Amino acid sequence: MSVRRLLVAAFGLALAAAPAHAQLKGVRFEIATVGDTTIGFRAGTEHWLKAGLRGIAVDPRKRDVLVARLRISKVDRSGNVTAVVTG
Length: 87
Description:
Largest sheet: 5 strands, antiparallel
Structural class: alpha+beta
Number of strands: 5
Distance between the termini: 20 Å
Number of helices: 2
Strand content: 35-45%
Helix content: 10-25%
Shape: globular
Radius of gyration: 13 Å
């Protein structure tokens, strides 16, 4: 697979179980909190986020190089999302 195709896949966040509408656009979230094995961010207007979805973290300063693989563990009522780093 070419590097270009890998970057295109990264923009979709690689959320395997997400609804089709979420897969059609690139969605990015700013990391708000960092723990030993978790990260936290705000869902904002993206209401399709739920526990169990998988995604990736990329570094935009390094041309979106892969930083970590994630699994969402919790989305609270106020839109705070907690994800566990899996790789």
